[in-house]
Amino acid sequence: MPVSAERRKQFRQIGHNLKPVVMVAEKGLSEGVLEELNRALEDHELIKVKIAINDRESRKAAIEALCKTTKAEVIQEIGKIALIFRAAREPNAKLSNILR
């Protein structure tokens, strides 16, 4: 389900103060990275991911692959940082960046 423009704006405001939770290096999306991404998205719903790839097209492809694999949606991309969102099955108010 696509995120509305109003909700996207709220997510960008929340994401401004977040630090990257997961870092993807030159090796790309390994099983460990995907496992950590899924755990972080389930816990926090809205996370920042740092993509440490210098080539702009490769970085964009990595973000698209990451979102397709985790069924998440890109909220914002700035440089090497992507803000992504996926609604949790069972939101936890203590961990979620959305419900705080």
Automatic annotation (TrEMBL):
- Matching SMART domains: CRS1_YhbY
- Which positions make up the signal peptide? none
List the protein's name: RNA-binding protein
Classification of source organism: Bacteria, Pseudomonadati, Pseudomonadota, Gammaproteobacteria, Cellvibrionales
Report the source organism. Answer: Simiduia aestuariiviva
Q: Does the keyword RNA-binding apply?
A: yes
Instruction: Give all residue intervals belonging to the CRM domain.
Output: 1-97
Keywords of this entry: RNA-binding
Q: Which InterPro entries match?
A: RNA-binding_CRM (IPR001890), RNA-binding_domain (IPR051925), RNA-binding_YhbY (IPR017924), YhbY-like_sf (IPR035920)
Domain of life per record: Bacteria
GO-annotated molecular function: RNA binding
Among PANTHER family, the record links this protein to: RNA-BINDING PROTEIN YHBY
